[in-house]
C-alpha cells in the first residue's frame, strides 16, 4: 500500500516539472530571437564632439535623424557624417570658434567651425599677394590654428632727385666801374635722379637697393658782370693781317676815321641774323650803310680808349642808323650790357 502511494507521488512530481520547463524554454527562445533582432536593427554611431567622444545606438541611418536623436544643442555648428556602413558610422561636430586675423596693421575677428585658413581668408575678403607671408598653412583648420598673421610684402621704385650745385663765372667789362659786379645771368642747378627699389613689410621700408643713377641735367653757372678797366676789347675778333694797335689806341693803318660818332648798343635772341645775312653776334655791328659800306672792317674805341669795342664787321643796319639818329649800333650779348653801354661817343676806324 505504501509502495503504491509512493509511485503515485513520483508520477505527480514529474508532471509538475514538465509543465514548468515548457514556459521557461519558450521564454528563452523568444529572448534570444529578440536579442538577435535588436543586434541586427541597431546601428552604432561614434560621436566626436570637440574633446568628448560618445556612442549612440540608433535604428536611424540618416544624419538629420541621428542629430535629432542626440538631443545636443548644435546651434551654429557644422557636422560631418560618415554614413552607416556595416552597422557603424562616425559623426563629427565642429562647434563655432572665434579666430583672430592680423593683416598688416589691422586685426579682425571671425567665427568659424570647420573652415580652412584659406577659406576663412577668402570669406573675410583677404587676398594674399605673390610675396605675402602667412604664419600657418592655408589648408590648416582655422579653428585650431590660433591667431592668423598675414605679413604684407611689397616692392616699389622710388626716385630721388639730387641737385648739382652751380658755380659762378665772371665776365669782365670796361662798361662798369672797376670792381662793380652785377648778375648777368642766373645759374641753374643740375639734377641727378637716383632710382631705388624698396622692400616694404606691412608698409614699413625694410630694405633699399640702388637700381640706377641718371644725370638728368648739368648745372649752368651764374655769370657775374665785373667792371674792369683792363678787361680789353669787347669784341673777340682778331686783328686783320698787318694791322696793329698802337699805345695811343689807333690802328697802324686805316682808310678813314669817323670821330665822336654817335653810338648805341643792341642785342637779340640766339639764332638771329643781320641785314647782311651774317649771324647777329658780338663783332658784327650796325651802321649807316650810306656812310659805311656793309662788309667793311672796322676798329671801334672811345675817344679816351676807356671803352674798346675792338675789331668788327659792318654787317647790319637798324632804325637808328637808317634814320640818321646814330652812326653806329654795336652788338652786345645782353640787355644789361646794352644798358650800361648807353649812348656814347665812339671813334670808328674804317680799315
Distance between the termini: 198 Å
What portion of residues belong to β-strands? Answer: 35-45%
Along the chain, the helix and strand elements come as HEEHEEEEHEEEEEEEEEEEEHEHE
Helix count equals 5
The CATH homologous superfamily of the largest domain is named RlpA-like domain
Q: Strand order, main sheet: write it out.
A: 15-19-16-18-17-20
Please compute the radius of gyration using only Cα atoms. 58 Å
Total DSSP E strands: 20
Helix content: 10-25%
Q: Which architecture of the largest domain per CATH?
A: Beta Barrel
The biggest sheet amounts to:
6 strands, mixed, barrel
Low-confidence stretches: 12-22, 30-39
Structural notes for this entry:
The protein is 19% helix and 40% strand. The protein is built from 5 helices and 20 strands. The protein has a 6-stranded mixed barrel with strand order 15-19-16-18-17-20. Strands 2-1-4-3 form a 4-stranded mixed β-sheet. Strands 6-5-8-7 form a 4-stranded mixed β-sheet, covered by helices on one side. The longest helix is centred in the first third of the chain and has 40 residues, at 2-41. The chain is rod-shaped. The N and C termini lie far apart (198 Å). The model is unreliable at 12-22 and 30-39 (pLDDT under 50).
Amino acid at each position: 500500500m505504501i509502495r503504491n502511494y509512493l509511485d503515485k507521488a513520483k508520477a505527480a512530481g514529474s508532471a509538475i516539472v514538465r509543465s514548468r520547463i515548457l514556459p521557461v524554454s519558450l521564454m528563452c527562445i523568444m529572448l534570444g530571437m529578440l536579442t538577435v533582432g535588436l543586434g541586427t536593427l541597431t546601428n552604432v554611431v561614434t560621436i566626436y564632439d570637440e574633446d568628448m567622444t560618445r556612442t549612440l545606438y540608433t535604428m536611424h541611418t540618416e544624419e538629420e535623424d541621428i542629430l535629432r536623436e542626440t538631443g545636443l544643442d548644435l546651434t551654429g555648428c557644422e557636422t560631418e557624417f560618415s554614413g552607416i556602413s556595416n552597422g557603424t558610422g562616425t559623426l563629427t561636430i565642429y562647434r563655432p570658434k572665434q579666430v583672430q586675423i592680423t593683416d598688416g596693421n589691422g586685426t579682425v575677428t571671425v567665427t568659424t567651425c570647420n573652415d580652412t585658413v584659406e577659406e576663412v581668408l577668402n570669406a573675410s575678403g583677404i587676398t594674399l599677394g605673390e610675396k605675402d607671408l602667412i604664419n600657418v598653412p592655408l589648408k590648416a583648420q582655422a579653428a585650431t590654428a590660433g591667431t592668423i598673421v598675414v605679413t604684407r610684402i611689397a616692392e616699389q621704385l622710388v626716385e630721388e632727385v639730387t641737385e648739382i650745385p652751380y658755380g659762378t663765372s665772371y665776365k669782365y667789362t670796361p662798361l662798369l666801374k672797376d670792381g662793380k659786379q652785377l648778375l648777368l645771368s642766373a645759374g641753374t642747378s643740375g639734377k641727378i635722379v637716383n632710382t631705388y627699389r624698396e622692400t616694404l613689410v606691412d608698409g614699413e621700408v625694410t630694405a633699399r637697393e640702388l637700381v640706377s643713377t641718371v644725370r638728368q641735367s648739368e648745372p649752368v653757372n651764374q655769370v657775374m658782370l665785373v667792371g674792369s678797366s683792363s678787361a680789353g676789347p669787347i669784341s673777340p675778333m682778331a686783328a686783320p693781317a698787318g694791322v696793329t694797335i698802337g699805345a695811343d689806341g689807333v690802328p697802324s693803318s686805316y682808310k678813314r676815321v669817323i670821330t665822336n660818332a654817335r653810338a648805341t648798343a643792341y642785342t637779340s635772341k640766339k639764332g638771329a641774323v643781320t641785314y647782311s645775312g651774317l649771324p647777329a653776334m658780338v663783332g658784327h655791328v650796325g651802321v649807316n650803310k650810306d656812310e659805311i659800306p656793309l662788309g667793311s672792317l672796322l676798329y671801334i674805341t672811345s675817344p679816351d680808349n676807356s671803352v674798346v669795342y675792338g675789331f668788327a664787321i659792318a654787317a647790319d643796319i637798324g632804325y637808328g642808323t637808317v634814320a640818321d639818329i646814330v652812326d653806329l649800333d654795336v652788338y652786345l650779348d645782353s640787355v644789361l650790357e646794352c644798358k650800361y653801354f648807353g649812348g656814347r661817343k665812339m671813334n670808328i676806324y674804317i680799315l
